Amino acid sequence: MIYGSVCSGIEAATVAWEPLGWEPQFYSEIEEFPRCVLQHHYPGVPLHDDFTTIGADQYGSNLDVLIAGTPCQSFSVAGLRGGMDDERGNLALGFLKLAQRKKPRWIVWENVPGVLSSGRGRDFGSFIGGLAELGYGFAYSVINAQYAGVAQRRRRVFVVGYFGAWQPAAAVLFDETCLRWDSPPSRGERSDATGESVPSSSVYECHGQDSRVKNVGDVCTTVTAKYGTGGGNVPIVVPDVSKTLSCPKGFRLDYETETFIPTVAVQTGMTGANGKNWSEEVSHTLDTANPPVVNQSYGEDLRVRRLTPMECERLQGFPDDYTKVPYMHYKETPDTPRYKAIGNSFAVPVVRDIGRRIDVVDRIING
Question: Which band of pLDDT confidence, cut at 50, 70 and 90, is reported for residue 303?
Fold first, then answer.
């Protein structure tokens, strides 16, 4: 598959689709730091500044997929919500004009869920209406990245279009059962508050050690404490409340009396030294009162820290230090542009899953 990517950012699409054997035809990005990332990793791929200048005759007519995550600020509920009247929001229509010129068989477009309500729905209606006028059948869905294998909740609208029919687009975004009116029956039986037998369900527990399905009402081991490890580095699980719901004793400064008083400290990823010094108080991570900037009993200052750029890369599915590239005159890549570029990107596993399904559906269509 040959694809073109505009509003490329740091190119999550290529990180997602390169393992599938897909080849990029061109990129387009206007921000300085993401351009440095693209030039560092993909020096052989043409990199445009303004994608609206890409002509119909450039690169031939063999484009299979056109993907973009046009700027979301004008649609975000956290912004001014200028919608299509905002220059950034209007790039969504510019993307449609590029699709009209390049005529790809597939379209992939991403934005924040706020686009669905921007302009009381008229903005999103303009976009998908434009797709229809160009001859594309389409489907759209709000996809949460946590279900694609990354450790964050990140809900984004994805629109998939296919030239000439809507069924291939729907097959990419939805399972067959989602397109049927008859829902499958629930599994098993349970009792409700009245003692009556009613259909039951289950919950899926997933963490670093193992994954399992449990019945509703059972406590997952992620909310019990783990003390040490047994054979094969397997955590020893004990039937106790997790120590992430309590924390080591410490002290905080009372500004009125100018004295330190016993309190609790933020605990991140610790189960305590041999189980000692646990406070029975509720952790301040569950309470907004009294900010937990305190000293632990052994005197070391504890503070809430921010995620590192590498951790943010992992949260989005990128390789470690993917954004650690030469930038301007800096000896060490600054964190600030890395945070911004990573935050503006796609979650790689979501785009990879969409690409895999496009690949399968496209092969079926072409026999």
Answer: low
The answer on 114 and 29 residing in a single domain is: yes
d(CA 243, CA 280): 10
- Tens of pLDDT, residue by residue over 146-186, are 999 898 999 999 999 999 999 999 999 997 665 555 555 55
What contacts 171, CB < 8 A, 6 or more positions away?
Answer: 357, 361
| 302 belongs to a structural domain | no
Residue 336 has pLDDT above 60, yes or no: yes
User: Do 38 and 160 reside in the same domain of the chain?
Assistant: yes
| pTM for the full predicted model | 0.66
Determine phi and psi for 324, rounding to 5 degrees.
-85, 85
Which is it for strands 189-191 and 197-199: parallel, antiparallel or unpaired?
A: antiparallel
Do 107 and 220 lie in one domain? The reply is no
Residue 359 lies in a domain: yes
Residues 251 and 265 in one domain: yes
Bridge partner residues of 248 (DSSP): 278
Residue 315 is inside which H or E element, if any? Answer: helix 309-316
- Give yes or no: residues 172 and 198 share one domain: no
For the chain, percent of residues with pLDDT exceeding 90: 47
Domain match, 11 and 154 both: yes
Range of the domain at 109: 2-179+318-365
Based on the domain organization, do 9 and 100 belong to the same domain?
yes
Place of tokens 């008229």: 122
The CA distance from 366 to 259, in Å, is 75
Tell me the C-alpha to C-alpha distance, in Å, between residue 342 and each of 40, 42, 253, 256, 316.
16, 17, 36, 42, 7
Q: Counting every residue, how long is the chain?
A: 367
Q: Pairing between strand 23-28 and 47-48?
A: parallel
Task: Say if residue 346 is in the same domain as residue 248.
Answer: no
As given in the structure block, the two tokens for residue 307 are 């995620």
Residues designated as active site: 72
Residue 61: pLDDT band by 50, 70, 90 thresholds? confident
